[in-house]
Amino acid sequence: MSQHLSQMVRERAKLYANRDVFWYKEEEEKEYKKLSWNNLIKMTDKVSKALLSLGFGRETKIGIFSNNCVKWTISDLGILSTRGVVVPFFGTASKHQVKYIVDETQMQFMFVGNKDQLEKALWVVENSDSLEKIVVFDKTVSVDNDHCMSWTEFCNLGDDPKYDSTLNQLIKEAKTNDLATIIYTSGTTGEPKGVMLDHNNFLRSFKSHDLRLDIRESDVSLCFLPLSHIFERAWTFYLLHCGAVNCFLSNPKKVVDVLPVVKPTVMCTVPRFYEKTYDAIMTEKEKWPAIKQNVFNWAIKIGRNCTKYQKDAKRIPFFLNIKHFIADKLVFKTIRNIFGGNIRFLPCAGAAIRPELLKFFHAADVFVNYGYGATETTATVSCARPDVFNLDTCGSIMPDVSVKISDEGEIMIKGDTVFKGYYNKPEETAKSLQNGWYKSGDEGFITNEGYLVMTDRIKDLMKTSGGKYVSPQKIELMLSEDPFIEQIIVIGDSRKFISALVVPEFESLKITTKNLGIINHDAKTLVMNEKIIDFFKQRIDKLQEELSPHERIVKFTLLSEPFSIENDALTSTLKMKRKLISEQYKEIINKMYE
Question: What is the pTM of this model?
Answer without folding.
Answer: 0.89
